[in-house]
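Quick start: read one record
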Amino acid sequence: MSSNVKDAGTDEWFDIVNQRDEVIGRATRREAHATGLWHRAVHVLVFDAVGRVFLQRRSMLKDLSPGLWDSSCSGHLDAGEDYDTAAVRELAEEIGLRRSVAPERWFRIDACVETGWEFVWVYRLRHDGPLTLEPKEIQYGEWVHPAEVTQRMAAKPADFCPSVKLLWPMATARVAL
């Protein structure tokens, strides 16, 4: 499991990448984050039939951005893993959606300070069934109309993860949600 829940006994391994998102080495999660090494992550935005997006409130157990609002699900790529495989894994681990294929790749974000020096693929998925939230990852979640997400972000930006504050305007600019 590639959780970011605090655990002193283990550390994940990430592929470290260059400016072209090509693998140039490996490092532990701790080392990558402490030294700003470029690595990889995925975000999935899940929309229902009426166009609401599912947002999660991150668990207070998370070592980065605990208690902040985040994408429907997100996570790092494990060393040797590709983006699509990570998206499928994260959907299952965080919100209980089991899929054999990755959702639609929507857009890509280059590594930057807001993403924590992660190259990110953002995926889009429509899902109307139930979600099963992993309590170690997610405090709770809710379905929110896109305009309300934008309003909440403007009113209380400190309540949202930096990466979501970066990707949300990009998502809303792409198509009418």
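The CA atoms of residues 45 and 124 lie 5 Å apart.
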